[in-house]
Design goal:
- By secondary structure, the chain is mostly beta strands.
- Helices cover 12% and strands 37% of the residues.
- It has one helix and seven strands, in the order βββββββα.
- It has one helix spanning 73-82, and strands spanning 2-3, 10-15, 21-24, 29-33, 39-42, 48-54, 60-62.
- The strands form two sheets. A four-stranded antiparallel sheet has the order 5-6-4-7, with no helix packed on it. The protein has a three-stranded antiparallel sheet with strand order 1-2-3, with no helix packed on it.
- Strand 1 and strand 2 form a beta hairpin.
């Protein structure tokens, strides 16, 4: 498994429906889809979904984009602006 260059955490790369690879946290999390929700999840099929997160074991599961949890995510945004 690969690791984040910013924080060293394990990351899982998932291809989105648009064809881009997105770094995600490797452990799936439960969610309930809700249009307009602030939470975002990437499904196994590469679909980005607006959602509310839940611990309900019957909920759908997906992967959290790593930039939402990386303590150094702002460093990558700065690097893109400079480039």
């Amino acid at each position: 498994m690969r690791t984040c260059k910013g924080c060293g955490s394990p990351i899982l790369w998932i291809r989105t429906e648009g064809g881009k690879s997105m770094p995600c946290d490797p452990l799936p999390v439960g969610y309930r889809e809700r249009e307009g929700a602030r939470g975002k999840i990437l499904t196994r099929g590469g679909h980005i979904v607006s959602c509310d997160f839940t611990n309900d074991p019957t909920a759908e599961t997906g992967y959290m984009p790593h930039f939402a949890t990386c303590p150094n995510a702002a460093d990558f945004k700065k690097a893109r602006k400079k480039g």
